[in-house]
Write a structure and sequence with these properties.
Helix content: over 70%
Structural class: mainly alpha
Oligomer: single chain
Strand content: 5-15%
Largest sheet: 3 strands, antiparallel
Shape: elongated
Number of strands: 3
CATH superfamily of the largest domain: Type II secretion system (T2SS), domain F
């Protein structure tokens, strides 16, 4: 008999983690299902310890996974047997990490595991994907839930790409500004300092300050770089603490320019994730559990966890989320309408589309403001250096006349 760590949902809506003994994972899942539990995950105790101590697996790229699901849906609709479909998908993929993972899934399915169990046990695929497959298996309509997940994947991927591409130009300007300052401080200023020392010109305070600052920075450049590296390493160590991550999240969401943008982005991510799970037929408590593990913001995950506890106790989702203080009033009102009309999944999808469009508009406005500010900053740096080093030349010209 082997020991397994099980994450289960009870009839009352509670989520519990407990250790069970069974001859196989398949037997344990059947037994727990017969007892009325909703099985989130079943993992061998040894596998967990190996995963913690073993080396890190190569990550599957989101674009490769998107192509995989498009092909998987096509093969599933064609009526091809599942194992044959997995064989073809393994051969067609160009990603080595994805090919290895699909081969492992195929072997587990061949050994008798359900498709959702096989994907979950590999540990390389999103939890929302495994939960969606499980719902499709229970409803007997795998094609429909695959199509829903593919739509979710395309919408989320497209939204993220728009978000990141809009930040490329401001990031380029920031890098250019930093590079310009470094170039001026390490190359231009020392040459002007040598020129004025040879000419024995009386320098104004502004020029003396720029020369002193640049020469000091150049002299201690190695220590400055070492300090930056140490700060980065300390920051990474600090971010391993949940308390530090939550404090950083609060700071981000309360920032004057980007705070509202990040809030709308997070709400859209949550709404689309929960909508996909509910459309797949997953109960609300189980859907919230999966959504909590799928969102990118720890602060949002904390709010979902609190709402999950209250929904388990019998409160409405909109009222439970309202007490967290995280969600905007408009989002809560739309969810309340979805609850009263019995169309929560479609209302969440509409909510996600609304906030995604709002983020795109706000992002375009923010970029339109940031670009001239960055260009003006570059112009100010250049103008400051020019004024600082041409003032002595004007003084020298007046002495000649």
């Amino acid at each position: 008999m082997a020991e397994f760590v099980c994450k289960l949902g009870t009839d009352s809506g509670r989520v519990v983690t407990q250790t069970e003994q069974a001859a196989s994972e398949q037997e344990l899942r059947q037994r727990l299902g017969a007892q009325g539990y909703f099985v989130f995950s079943v993992r061998p105790k040894e596998a967990l310890s190996i995963r913690l101590t073993g080396r890190r697996q190569a990550r599957i790229r989101a674009d490769d996974f998107l192509v995989f699901n498009q092909q998987f849906l096509t093969l599933s609709k064609s009526g091809l047997p599942l194992q044959k479909s997995l064989d073809l998908l393994s051969k067609q993929t160009q990603s080595e990490a994805l090919r290895v993972a699909v081969d492992e899934v195929r072997d587990k399915v061949r050994a008798g595991a359900l498709l959702s169990e096989a994907f979950e046990s590999v540990g390389q695929f999103p939890k929302i994907y495994c939960a969606t497959l499980r719902a499709g298996e229970r409803s007997g309509n795998l094609d429909r839930v695959l199509a829903q997940y593919l739509s979710y994947q395309k919408a989320g991927r497209g939204f993220r790409k728009k978000f990141l591409s809009a930040m490329v130009y401001p990031a380029f300007l920031m890098v250019f500004l930093c590079g310009l300052i470094v170039f001026v401080a390490t190359f231009i200023v020392p040459r002007f300092a040598e020129l004025y020392r040879d000419l024995d010109v009386a320098l104004p305070p502004l020029t003396l300050f720029v020369i002193s600052f640049s020469l000091t920075a150049k002299r201690y450049a190695a220590f400055i770089l070492a300090g930056i590296v140490v700060l980065v390493l300390l920051g990474r160590m600090a971010f391993r603490s949940p308390g530090t991550r939550l404090a950083w999240e609060r700071l981000k969401f309360h920032s004057p320019l980007a705070g509202k943008l990040l809030l709308k982005f997070s709400v859209a991510e949550f709404a689309r994730t929960l909508s996909t799970l509910l459309q797949g037929g997953i109960p609300i408590v189980a859907a919230l559990e999966t959504a909590k593990d799928s969102v990118s913001s720890p602060l949002l995950a904390q709010a979902i966890s609190h709402a999950q506890e209250e929904v388990t106790a019998g409160r409405a989702l909109s009222a439970s989320l309202r007490t967290s203080g995280f969600f905007p009033t408009l989002a809560l009102e739309m969810m309340e309408v979805g609850e009263s009309t019995g169309a929560m999944a479609s209302m969440l999808e509409a909510l996600a589309e609304f906030f995604e469009e709002d983020v795109n508009i706000d992002l375009a406005t923010l970029v339109a403001l940031v670009d001239p500010v960055m260009i003006a900053s570059i112009a100010l740096v250049v103008a400051f250096v020019l004024i600082a080093f041409y003032l002595p030349l004007f003084s020298l010209a007046g002495q000649v006349h």
